[in-house]
Design brief:
Oligomer: single chain
CATH superfamily of the largest domain: Jelly Rolls
Distance between the termini: 45 Å
Strand order of the largest sheet: 2-3-10-5-8
Number of domains: 2
Helix content: 40-55%
Order of helices and strands: EEEEEEEEEEHEHHEHHHHHHHEHH
Length: 345
């Protein structure tokens, strides 16, 4: 069975961290309780969150706070993005805090991505990611400690505040989930704002405004991206014609399909198929499993690059028995850091 870059760190039956790598061609809209880190390893990622649009490039980091609706579109098919979700139970264990009311502002930019602080954050995130994939319980403990140190750095050095939960946010989330579920089921049909708003029993103007505010894109743009996500999967089947794929995925004709592909993915369907023939790693996995297949030589190289210290030395891996004493020393050091951080909270 093919393995993928997807790892979960649990303790006492509770999920604390979830790590994964996503590749280009993906579009998703999420609204969840865990806090989420994004680190672009290669290419670009277009992200909308908190009413702002971010165009993230290689080495950029972005933090998505809890219960913040956000969209991510990997426009470049060769893009690689590392994602880590930090569960509410993690904050209860490590900081005795409710993550749902915690707001931390952290987004790198072309001017700041090379600063030592962001290099340190990339290092901590990459190390937490790498250790999460080890089967050794000690390695999982290290993954937790590196993430604790990362969050501590953020709370010490980045704008942080506690907010009250907004009234109505749960209702808005439920409405959007119903709308998106309907679109996901009927993307291959002709969809209009009037039809969907009638289905969820909301005023079309309200729904249009809510959709733009929450996702950062217009209603019709979202539908096109959903159709393209499914169409990219189908393009991997060489036996299917581009015309039939266009019609089966809600596009009126192949011309419209080609124009949308060029606009949103930077390639026409024909160009994408040609790229697939040259590099099968671009193939979009069928179904819901969108994580990058493991192992991937380029991904490993990029992870090593991010997981280097500020002096450029690669940190030891926990696989060998001889490293256990050193790893325990790291754990002790990180425990001291965590204790100091708790003094600031």
């Amino acid at each position: 069975m093919e393995t993928r870059y997807h790892a979960m760190v649990q303790q006492d039956g509770q999920l604390l961290l979830e790590h994964y790598l996503m590749s280009g061609g993906n579009y998703q809209f999420c609204w969840h309780k865990p806090l989420e880190f994004m680190l672009v390893l290669k290419g670009t990622a277009e992200v909308f969150a908190d009413g702002r649009c971010y165009l993230l490039e290689q080495d950029d980091m972005l933090l998505i706070n809890s219960n913040c609706g956000h969209s991510m579109f990997l426009r470049d098919l060769e893009s690689l993005v590392l994602i880590c979700e930090v569960a509410p139970s993690f904050f209860q264990r490590q900081f005795s805090m409710e993550v749902s009311t915690l707001q931390i502002e952290c987004a790198s930019s072309p001017a700041s991505r090379r600063e030592p602080m962001f290099a340190q954050l990339r290092f901590l995130l990459a190390r937490s990611f790498v250790y999460a994939f080890e089967e050794d319980p000690l390695a999982h403990n290290l993954s937790i400690h590196y993430m604790t140190a990362l969050l501590g750095e953020l709370m010490l050095h980045f704008p942080t505040h506690i907010t009250e939960q907004k009234q109505g946010k749960g209702k808005e989330k439920e409405t959007l989930q119903r709308v998106m579920s309907y679109i996901e089921t009927n993307f291959d049909q002709k969809l209009t704002l009037e039809e969907v708003s009638s289905h969820v029993q909301y005023n079309r103007t309200y729904l249009s405004t809510l959709f733009k505010k929450s996702t950062g894109i217009l209603f019709n743009d979202y539908i096109i991206r959903v159709r393209l996500r499914h169409a990219l999967e189908a393009l991997g089947d060489e036996d299917r014609s581009i015309v039939s794929i266009a019609l089966d995925h809600g596009f009126p004709d192949s011309k419209s399909f080609s124009a949308s592909m060029k606009k949103y993915c930077g390639r026409t369907p024909q160009e994408y198929r040609q790229a697939l023939r040259q590099n099968s790693a671009l193939r979009i996995p069928q179904g819901a499993d969108k994580y990058l297949p493991k192992p991937d030589a380029e991904a490993e190289k990029l992870l090593v690059r991010c997981g280097m210290g500020l002096e450029g030395t690669v940190q030891p891996q926990p696989a060998e028995e001889g490293n256990r004493a050193l790893l325990r020393e790291y754990c002790d050091q990180l425990e001291e850091i965590v204790d100091r951080l708790r003094g600031f909270l």
